[in-house]
Design goal:
The complex is a heterodimer of chains A (117) and B (112). By secondary structure, chain A is an all-beta fold. In chain A, a hairpin with a 5-residue loop joins strand 4 and strand 5 (44-51). In chain A, the strands form 2 sheets. In chain A, strands 2, 4, 5, 6, 9, 10 and 11 form a 7-stranded mixed beta sheet that branches. In chain A, strands 1-3-8-7 form a 4-stranded antiparallel beta sheet, with no helix packed on it. Helix content of chain A is 0%, strand content 50%. Chain B has 112 residues and is mainly β. Chain B has no helices and 11 strands. Chain B has strands at residues 6-7, 10-14, 19-24, 29-37, 43-50, 55-58, 61-66, 71-76, 85-93, 100-102, 106-111. In chain B, strand 4 (29-37) and strand 5 (43-50) form a beta hairpin. Classes of the chains: A mainly beta (117), B mainly beta (112). Chains A and B meet through strand 4, strand 5, strand 9 and strand 10 of A and strand 4, strand 5 and strand 10 of B.
């Protein structure tokens, strides 16, 4: 149980176009989801906290107009990279915390590798 | 933002040896978690230790937490080639949403 599905797993797009990444909790409801970005051989950087039914909370330095987050239901959060540029190329990962008690960690999607050409 | 540092950044050992990774953090936490990531993939949760716990075991994993020093360690005993991966500590911060902040990670290579 507690599976998070992330799509697409990889995408190549042209500069100036927008790309949408979906993150779904398959067998639990996720009031809150988190979006991370990871550069090669580096750690995960938290970009934003996605809240169902309300505006996302962005980390310092993350452009909210660049990375649009929508959390329209208890099982789906989307990240849209708008007007993508090559520097947006990265690995994006979402996560959610199933409500299974205090000793359980967070569940992560399998990630989306975005390449902007 | 990253919570802190992990050391070593990279670790290379032989099968059967133990691997120890250390993590430091900066702020108050609810718990600290360790994750594993195989190259180019998502993260797998390994173990969680609460802020009021000092040591926890799970199979070949042993985690310690020292809140006075704001540090944690992960010990993998009797390592296997399949343990080759990157390992990250992550702290669940106090306050709203319990967002997870990751350390820099340790790349572990276990050679047969």
């Amino acid at each position: 149980g507690a599976v998070v599905s992330q799509h697409p797993s990889w995408v190549i797009c042209k500069s100036g176009t927008s790309v949408k990444i979906e993150c779904r909790s398959l067998d639990f409801q996720a009031t809150t989801m988190f979006w991370y970005r990871q550069f090669p051989k580096q750690s995960l950087m938290l970009m934003a906290t996605s809240n169902e039914g309300s505006k996302a909370t962005y980390e310092q330095g993350v452009e909210k107009d660049k990375f649009l987050i929508n959390h329209a239901s208890l099982t789906l959060s989307t990240l849209t990279v708008t007007s993508a540029h090559p520097e947006d190329s990265s690995f994006y990962i979402c996560s959610a915390r199933p409500d299974r008690g205090r000793d359980y960690g967070y569940t992560f999607g399998s990630g989306t590798r975005l390449t902007v050409v | 933002s990253q919570q802190g540092e992990e050391d070593p950044q990279a670790l290379s050992i032989q099968e059967g040896e133990n691997a120890t990774m250390n993590c430091s953090y900066k702020t108050s936490i609810n718990n600290l978690q360790w994750y594993r990531q195989n190259s180019g993939r998502g993260l797998v949760h390994l173990i969680l230790i609460r802020s009021n716990e000092r040591e926890k075991h799970s199979g070949r994993l042993r985690v310690t937490l020292d809140t006075s020093k704001k540090s944690s360690s992960l010990l993998i005993t009797a390592s296997r080639a399949a343990d080759t991966a990157s390992y990250f500590c992550a702290t669940a911060l106090t306050g709203g949403y319990n967002k997870l902040i990751f350390g820099a990670g340790t790349r572990l290579a276990v050679h047969p």
